[in-house]
């Protein structure tokens, strides 16, 4: 069951006796746990029928003992097992999951990693309850997610602004929603969030960011790249080298895929779908970069990104002697001088 369907069923008060909420993205787990806490019990029932346990401080016998109790003056009880990833003997819950108490809703929140699907406990929960895997979003899906999050709250956002926020905030949905919620506090409903609003209220520059740097590199715009590098030198927290190399890798991966799709003569709509692009002007940006790098040039780009990613982690580089700013300057210069020819 996907997130939307599961959330809808919880709000409709259709409960399962046991839930396993696990995976890399904590945001969806938090949202589902919050919904279960809100809808499983009425407010006056919680004092006697809601129990919160933490994996690090709990063993399976405590969980089973709590789950086997009968609710007091209520239809059901709710057991929230938080931070289950820290529970040493979670495997031993398999016996309970095989025969869960029908008057208990047991919620197991296992964050930041999956619980092995081959374990007896996972199989038993899947058989008698609900297993939800909370997967992180891919980079190219974040702008659309930001747009949808704001749309659901009666706001709009420019495509460039959603891309700017995605580039600046990364893929952590908790971090993204925190910034968006703060942004909405200062804006009336119906407002369209622009790049200028993002720059003024979030603190990311619409002209000096990783998104603009990758475009400057791809377009071989030396003057623009130099201005951005000078800004980063004065604001080192704006562009840590590992973040820059990761962003550039994603950017050039799309350029490489674009060249492959062009070679196969795929339609423009098929290309945009494959690259996860919603607007034609983004595709035009990638196409311009693709004309600046032939196949050998692309391989050279990926080799450089790998080299400097390792250097940013202290492999083959003395950061104390050179510093991230110098390494970034080197990387950008070398990327913009990769031997290539214009491809029609």
Structure described in brief:
The chain has 344 residues and is α/β, with parallel strands linked by helices. It has 18 helices and 7 strands.
Describe the structure.
With 344 residues, the chain is of the alpha/beta class. It has three domains: 3-134, Rossmann fold (3-Layer(aba) Sandwich); 139-201, Helicase, Ruva Protein, domain 3, CATH 1.10.8; 210-336, Zinc Finger, Delta Prime, domain 3 (Up-down Bundle), CATH 1.20.272. Helix content is 56%, strand content 10%. It is built from 18 helices and seven strands. The strands form two sheets. Strands 2-3-4-1-5 form a five-stranded parallel beta sheet, sandwiched between helices. It is elongated and about 70 Å long.
Topology:
Blueprint: H1 3-11, E1 18-23, H2 26-39, H3 46-49, E2 50-54, H4 60-68, E3 77-82, H5 94-98, E4 104-111, H6 120-128, E5 130-134, H7 142-152, E6 156-157, H8 159-169, H9 173-185, E7 192-193, H10 195-201, H11 210-218, H12 222-234, H13 241-263, H14 268-275, H15 280-292, H16 295-312, H17 319-322, H18 324-336
């Amino acid at each position: 069951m996907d997130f939307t369907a599961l959330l809808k069923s919880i709000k409709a008060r259709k409960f399962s006796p046991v839930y396993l909420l696990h995976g890399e993205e904590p945001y969806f787990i938090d949202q589902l746990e919050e919904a279960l806490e809100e809808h499983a019990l009425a407010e006056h029932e919680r004092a006697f029928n809601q129990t919160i346990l933490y994996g690090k401080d709990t063993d399976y016998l405590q969980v089973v003992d709590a789950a086997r109790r009968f609710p007091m003056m209520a239809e059901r009880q709710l057991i929230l097992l938080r931070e289950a990833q820290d529970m040493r003997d979670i495997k031993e819950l398999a016996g309970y999951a095989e025969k869960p108490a029908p008057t208990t809703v047991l919620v197991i929140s296992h964050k930041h990693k999956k619980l092995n699907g081959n374990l007896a406990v996972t199989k038993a929960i899947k058989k008698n309850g609900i297993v939800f895997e909370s997967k992180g979003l891919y980079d190219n899906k974040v702008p659309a997610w930001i747009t949808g999050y704001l749309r659901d709250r009666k706001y709009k956002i420019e495509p460039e602004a959603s891309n700017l926020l995605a580039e600046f905030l990364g893929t952590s949905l908790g971090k993204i929603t925190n910034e968006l919620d703060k942004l909405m506090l200062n804006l009336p409903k119906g407002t369209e969030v622009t790049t200028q609003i993002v720059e003024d209220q979030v603190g990311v520059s619409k002209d000096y960011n990783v998104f603009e740097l990758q475009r400057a590199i791809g377009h071989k715009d030396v003057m623009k790249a130099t201005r951005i590098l000078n800004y980063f030198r004065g604001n080192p927290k704006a562009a840590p080298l590992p973040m820059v190399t990761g962003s550039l890798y994603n950017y050039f991966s799309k350029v490489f895929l674009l060249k492959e799709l062009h070679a196969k003569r795929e339609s423009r709509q098929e290309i945009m779908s494959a690259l996860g692009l919603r607007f034609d002007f983004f595709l035009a940006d990638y196409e311009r970069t693709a004309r600046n790098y032939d196949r050998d040039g692309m391989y050279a780009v990926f080799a450089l990104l790998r080299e400097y990613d390792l250097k940013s982690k202290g492999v083959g580089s003395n950061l104390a002697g050179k510093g991230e700013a110098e390494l970034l300057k080197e990387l950008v210069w070398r990327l913009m001088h990769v031997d290539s020819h214009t491809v029609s």
